[in-house]
Design a protein that fits this description.
Blueprint: E1 10-14, H1 19-29, E2 34-39, H2 42-53, E3 59-63, H3 69-83, E4 88-91, H4 106-133, E5 137-142, H5 155-175, E6 180-187, H6 193-201, H7 205-212, H8 225-232, E7 243-246
Parallel strand pairs: 1-2, 1-4, 2-3, 4-5, 5-6, 6-7
Helix pairs in contact: 1-8, 3-4, 4-5
Bound molecules: NADPH dihydro-nicotinamide-adenine-dinucleotide phosphate.
Residues 14-15, 17-21, 39-41, 44, 64-67, 92-95, 115-116, 142, 144, 187, 189-190, 192-195 line the site of NADPH dihydro-nicotinamide-adenine-dinucleotide phosphate.
Length: 254
């Protein structure tokens, strides 16, 4: 029995062309999975593809804006056309607009909710049909510490990430009978393009995170590889509807 073998499995990672998405893709590639990374920036994707192919697996980029339902459908269709199946979906694409709630425009609210939450709903709904065809699958949704905590500058972001956890639970109950496990991962503070911007915009963030994190450091995308490997493989077949913090202890520290 090999609980951690993903040979023959096909994973879609939205926003897999960098940051946490690429870290998770690397975790699954290390177990032999074929990876389709979806995003808008093709140049960034070329570097990511080189990394994944260098690990000895098949990897392709499919250009998709996951806020658009038709593009989510095309992503799943193209993955099936390229590799014949979809076994794993990582809903990782995300963004933030950091402002006080009274200053957020309606447009900014919808932009964050559409990118972080509605996209995950649409991709999951579409990938469900593909997974049913192959007898089951794994969905992994990316939440945040803002799924648990609030921050003055994070109203739309925290709303979307709280929604990710509840959407995960609801879908897990719906699709357990189809042998589809749906789980969320709640990353702590990870050094990526997204948080580079946060550190420019939020005074003292670099130090306050480091101080509060028991492991005494910011995370790096590779720190997300192991949880992806676990949640994508048959090692987690009886794990569904949960939200796993991967945060160096940030969420349990007083
Ligand atoms: P990055 O900015 O590096 O990654 C975000 C990714 O999302 C990019 O690859 C981007 O690709 C993609 N993306 C954004 N909008 C769209 C869209 N409309 N359609 C398709 N792809 C899109 O940041 P992170 O790696 O940090 O973030 C990844 C996820 O992790 C996000 O959901 C974020 O909220 C979450 N997270 C991050 C934390 C951290 O500390 N870094 C902590 C907790 C959660 P492209 O530009 O090509 O479209």
């Amino acid at each position: 029995m090999n609980l951690f073998n993903l040979t023959g499995k096909v994973a879609i990672v939205t926003g897999g062309n960098g940051g946490i998405g690429l870290g998770m893709a690397e975790g699954m590639a290390s177990l032999g999975a074929t990876i389709v990374i979806a995003g808008r920036n093709r140049e960034k994707a070329e570097t990511a593809l080189a990394t994944l192919r260098g690990m000895g697996v098949k990897a392709e980029f499919v250009a998709a804006d996951v806020t658009q339902k038709a593009e989510c459908q095309a992503l799943v269709d193209q993955t099936e056309a390229l590799f014949g199946r979809v076994d794993i979906l990582v809903n990782n694409a995300g963004t933030s607009v950091r402002k006080m709630p009274q200053d957020i425009t309606e447009e900014e609210w919808h932009y964050v909710l559409n990118t972080n939450l509605t996209s995950a709903f649409l991709c999951s709904q579409i990938a469900y049909h593909a997974m049913k065809k192959v007898g089951g699958g794994k969905m992994i949704n990316i939440g945040s510490m803002m799924s648990l905590f609030g921050a003055p500058y994070a109203t739309p972001y925290a709303s979307s990430k709280g929604g990710i956890v509840q959407m995960t639970r609801a879908m897990a109950t719906a699709w357990a009978k189809d042998n589809i496990q749906v789980n969320a991962v709640l990353p702590g503070w990870i050094d990526t393009d997204l948080t580079k911007r946060a550190r420019q915009q939020v005074d003292g963030l670099q130090d306050s995170v480091q101080k509060r994190t028991p492991e005494g450091r910011w995370g790096v995308p590779r720190d997300m590889s192991g949880v992806a490997a676990f949640l994508a493989s048959s090692a987690s077949d009886f794990v569904t509807g949960t939200a796993i913090p991967v945060d160096g202890g940030f969420s349990i520290a007083m």
